[in-house]
Amino acid sequence: MRVVSGIKPTGNLHLGNYLGAIKQWVGMQADVEAAGGESMYFIADLHALTDAVDPRGVTDNSFEVTAAIIASGIDPARSILFNQARVPAHSELTWLLNNVARVGWLNRMTQFKDKAGKDREGASVGLYDYPVLMAADVLLYGATHVPVGEDQKQHLELARDIAAKFNLDYGVDLLVQPEPLISKAAPRIMSLRDAAQKMSKSNPSEAARINLVDDDDAIAQKFRRAKTDPDPLGESFEDLKDRPEARNLVTIFAALADRTPDDVVADYAGQGFGAFKPALADLAVAKLGPIRDEMLRLMADRGAVDAVLRQGADRANALAAPLLRDVQTAMGLVIDR
User: Fold this and answer.
1) pLDDT of 206-225, one tens digit each?
2) Whether 198 is catalytic
3) Could you confirm whether 115 is annotated as catalytic?
């Protein structure tokens, strides 16, 4: 079993990033290790180039994300942690797989349509080809399982299609078709000011999100001022189906406490948010405070963080080299045999 997953270095990490991805990775690290498998987590800095960010931003954000991952519990001694750009095989395998992937497949990718919008002709080739790089990211290491959210399942299906077509075209059994690993516990965290929108760094209101670097007072104040309705909590989580703000806060509480939303609602049934929000604030401070402190310490020691990424890249390069060589051989590119 080999689990491979990546995260874009977008910077300004918030609670949604932590609960939706990083916290899930920490749990998977232990589960995969217990099963005798291996976990690989990478900073997707090559993918970040498809966004309009300055070069310094890519570098700074990569350090921030790495610090957050380590502070949250990913142990570089137990998992391979690296940044994509330090493993050139990601880029090389992408080009090779571009000759297997089909334009029709990429035209069906809904994320490209969403991100390109009406200006599809003005979108970069990198944005269009993004899913092939994602396929290379996991096929390069023979990943057996890939943690994905619902919005990424289509990309994993593309990776499986590319692997199957490559094996068929070249008469080999080389590329592994990875299985999706979808955690039911991974919540969708919404804005604290408008539960119809995802929590996002792009929201102009700081009150809409909990940043991972927020101090204890900021965390507590944002939860206490979070938008809610005047009604008390019901008897079950299902009772909140038409109350998006209430559902969001209960979801956050449950995810931070490693409990089910129904358990949380049962504890506060019949109580108003005057009692619930201070309890949520205290829980968030207790859980996020230590992560923030360690994250800030690591961000102040770039040399140590860079050493982790370099060591991880060395391990990733060693794992990638044989597969890339086998792909090149299958395609007739290796002549010194």
Assistant:
1) 999 999 999 999 999 999 99
2) yes
3) yes
Q: Give the separation between CA 260 and CA 269, rounded to whole angstroms.
A: 14
pLDDT tens-digit series, residues 169-215: 999 999 999 998 866 666 789 999 999 999 998 899 999 999 999 99
Listed as ranges, residues in the chain with pLDDT below 50 are none
Looking at 115, 118, 165, 222, which residue is catalytic? Answer: 115
Sheet containing 145-147, strands listed edge to edge, beginning at the edge strand earlier in sequence: 80-83, 38-43, 2-7, 145-147, 179-181
Find where tokens 């559902």 sit.
247
| List 198, 227, 241, 277, catalytic entry | 198
CA distance 274 to 65: 34
Q: Which of 8, 184, 201, 241 is catalytic?
A: 201
23 counts as catalytic: no
Cα separation of 167 and 175, whole Å?
7
Amino acid at 254: A
What single DSSP character describes residue 20?
I
Tokens for 318, please give them.
């060693």
| DSSP state, residue 232 | P
